């Protein structure tokens, strides 16, 4: 749909809108139908069969049957998101599949792999607390082995259906070499949770990953008012995800699809500006004695293999910063209470700066041995003036 020659900014503004002029509209249309007129019993049945088994509407049967099987507003958003990572490392065209939340997206990827009869998952920590919890719990019929890149080869068995990683990792922003993981993984699919980097700074599929997963609730939406999850992958895997989605019902709703799609045109400019502010804040925090350690992928100390600095993996350090307070939990609690401009709240990727305590909140369900420290705070840096964000930290640390 998108001419491959387009740059990222043009893609962001125009993706998923190619037919709007023909439709005679400028804003994205929303289709709220939960059911659709059937052309005939046989035609409706054929359309159902196609969509329920993971097909996309093929135009032949002229109906989407029922919203859980297909919604045009969601499909339009999916086409737009896929155009940010148009090709796999093997040169296959990609498709995106959208879900009600990031966790619904992860669930569908895991279920689509369990369905192939390979229920073993290898996880590389740190992962988002919800993902860690889901895999640790085994709710979806998986069993999990946690390891690092060095232990990966030994952790893979004949039953391994999926390898899961995040880079930068949540919450301490560790960088994992995606290319190296994909190489070691061989034929085992790798899912990269690309939420923190976004498609603006990192393209996991080009690096050899099979699934590029995003909590669209974060940078894609960007305004803290819509939830969603999206997975970009090959057409074959996308079909498997749609089939799981049709059965389990994790479809994104059209209003959220509209809001998330509306976030895309400003995503490049938001991410790049927020990244500049994050670098300024991280650099300033590094000089403060109240802070034992600053984790930010754009600082050379946090990027020993040049994955950011040498542009091997990420086009910049992103807009998330973590700090480890020298005074531990009490100091972390005090800082959250004293900040005035910066909001004490979970989530990330929106226009305003947020801070939260991972061990108490986002990573609460993580096993004790892998839980972030009690002095760790995670900051999602926003679009305010960097001087104002820094001034707020300065007054709160006094
Ligand atoms: C928020 C988040 C998720 C979960 O997404 P939801 O939309 O909240 O379900 C998964 N991974 C990461 C890295 C996240 O930040």
């Amino acid at each position: 749909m998108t001419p491959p020659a387009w740059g990222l900014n043009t893609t962001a503004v125009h993706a998923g809108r190619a037919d709007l002029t023909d439709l005679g509209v400028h804003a994205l249309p929303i289709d709220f139908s939960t059911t659709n007129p059937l052309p005939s019993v046989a035609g409706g049945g054929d359309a159902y069969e196609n969509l329920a088994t993971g097909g996309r509407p093929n135009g032949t049967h002229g109906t989407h049957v029922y919203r859980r099987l297909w919604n045009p507003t969601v499909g339009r958003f999916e086409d737009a998101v896929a155009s940010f990572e148009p090709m796999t490392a093997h040169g296959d065209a990609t498709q995106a599949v959208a879900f009600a939340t990031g966790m619904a997206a992860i669930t569908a990827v895991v279920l689509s792999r369990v369905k192939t009869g390979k229920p073993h998952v290898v996880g590389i920590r740190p992962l988002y607390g919800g993902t860690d919890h889901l895999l640790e719990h085994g709710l979806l019929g998986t069993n999990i082995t946690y390891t690092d890149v060095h232990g990966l080869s030994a952790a893979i068995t004949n039953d391994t259906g999926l390898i899961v990683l995040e880079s930068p990792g949540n919450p301490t922003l560790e960088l994992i070499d995606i290319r190296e993981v994909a190489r070691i993984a061989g034929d085992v699919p790798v899912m990269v949770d690309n939420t923190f980097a976004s498609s603006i700074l990192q393209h996991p599929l080009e690096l050899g990953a099979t699934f590029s997963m995003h909590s669209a609730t974060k940078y894609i939406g960007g305004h803290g008012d819509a939830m969603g999850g999206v997975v970009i992958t090959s057409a074959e895997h996308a079909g498997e995800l749609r089939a799981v989605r049709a059965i389990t019902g994790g479809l994104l709703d059209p209003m959220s699809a509209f809001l998330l799609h509306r976030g895309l045109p400003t995503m490049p400019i938001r991410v790049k500006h927020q990244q500049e502010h994050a670098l300024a804040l991280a650099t300033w925090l590094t000089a403060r004695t109240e802070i034992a350690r600053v984790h930010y992928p754009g600082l050379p100390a946090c990027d020993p293999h040049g994955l950011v600095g040498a542009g091997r993996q990420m086009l910049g350090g992103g807009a998330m910063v973590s700090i480890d307070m020298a005074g531990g939990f009490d100091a972390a609690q005090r800082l959250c209470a004293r900040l005035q401009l910066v909001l004490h709240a979970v989530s990330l990727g929106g226009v305003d700066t947020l801070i939260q305590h991972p061990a108490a909140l986002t990573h609460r369900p993580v096993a004790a041995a892998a839980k972030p420290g009690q002095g760790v705070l995670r900051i999602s840096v926003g679009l305010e003036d960097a001087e104002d964000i820094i001034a707020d930290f300065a007054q709160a640390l006094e």
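The longest strand covers residues 160-166. The radius of gyration is 21 Å.
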